Structure formats: C-alpha cells, structure tokens
Amino acid sequence: MTHFKHFKSQTGQAFENLLNIINTQYKNQQIALINKRATPVTVVQAKGRQISRGFFA
CA 55 to CA 42: how far, in whole Å? Predict the structure, then answer.
C-alpha cells in the first residue's frame, strides 16, 4: 500500500509537467496561450506535505 501512496503523490506533479509541455507546444504553434492560476487555499491542518484540513480563501 505504501507504493500506491507514493505513486498517488507523484501523479499530481506528472500531470503538472504534462500541462507545461502542452502549453509550450500550443504557444510555439501560436494556437493558444494558457495562463495557469493557483487556487488559494488556507491550510488548517497538515502532516508533512499532505493537507488534511483546509478551505478555499
């Protein structure tokens, strides 16, 4: 089960990297310019890097 947790935590970064690659290709081909916007979250409780409680600011 530990392996799955490690995999699960890496999928977010892999998805982020894929989006960056796609956005670069769109920009280079002058198809679109996509600006990413961070979602502001106020963390109430966290354990390490995992947020267990929080709310959207």
Answer: 5
